Amino acid sequence: MSDSRKEGIDKLEKEQFGRKSLTKEALQGTYASLVEEDFPDSKRIHFIADLGRSPEIAFHFELICNDWEEGTDLNFEASFDQHGQEGIDYLLETLNQEEDESQRILIVYFLAKILFKVRHRDFYASSCKQVLPVLISLLPSSEASNRRKLIIALGWIGSISEIEILGQHLLTDPDALCRAWSASSLMQLSFHQIEKEVLMEKTKDLFREAIPEEKDFLACALMIEAAQVLFGKKWIPTSAVEKLEIEKIEKARKSAIRFLKK
After folding, report:
1. Which of 67, 123, 140, 152 is the most buried (most CB within 10 A)?
2. What pLDDT, in 10s, does the model give residues 96-114?
3. Where are the domains of the chain?
4. For every residue of the chain, which 3-state class applies, written as one string?
5. What CA dihedral angle connects 211, 215, 220 and 223, to 10 degrees?
6. Residue 256 contacts residue 233 (beta carbons within 8 Å)
């Protein structure tokens, strides 16, 4: 056996041993220490990595749910994608058992976020097909904050079939940010399942209708920004969006409309 191959096997064995040693009891002990120390960043980051490497998926998700509920923003979810398909399957099972709509929306959003991170894995497409029907069924929620999450999630895992849904929200959603995120999600679709040329063809009319009619300047700026990324233009600088510079937004609106009417 060559030295390099032996080193590779030794490394793999160490990783497997390290993963098995990350038991729930060990993780709970580390977590208790972190609570006492008020979660110092360096130790918290190391703990997050350990959570992702451990086989304790349920405990990992329990901590994530606590973080959501308490609003502590400890970012435990950052390493959940390391669980791979096992983690996705666990979340899908949890989603199917969950009855509370708000929690279902959080899980769907989280699933979509993870799937976008692992979009090059072989289980991406089949998992998206399981998540999308649930996501779409939750979208009519009356809560604007919930719709925003779901619209963003559609941009991460949606397909050509979801263009119409996003288009409806772009044009008719009563919430300005929902309209804005619909534009961003339409653009986002070009990063995975839909060829850019196809997406440009199918969304040009939507942007042509939405941008001239948008009354909210932030939403308008975000729509223009999404359209310029999709169509490869430079109508508005990011600084004008961030600072909400009305004059530059209106100038960019005119440029975008001229292009979209061609």
Report:
1. 152
2. 999 999 999 999 999 999 9
3. 17-90, 147-262
4. CCHHHHHHHHHHHHHHHHHHHCCHHHHHHHHHHHHHCCCCHHHHHHHHHHHHHCCCHHHHHHHHHHHHHHCCCCCHHHHHHHHHHHHHHHHHHHHHHCCCHHHHHHHHHHHHHHHHHCCCCCCHHHHHHHHHHHHHHHCCCCCHHHHHHHHHHHHHHCCHHHHHHHHHHHHHCCCHHHHHHHHHHHHHHHHCCCCHHHHHHHHHHHHHHHHHHCCCHHHHHHHHHHHHHHHCCCCCCHHHHHCCCHHHHHHHHHHHHHHHCC
5. -50
6. yes
Spatial separation of the C-alpha atoms in residues 183 and 162, rounded to whole Å: 13
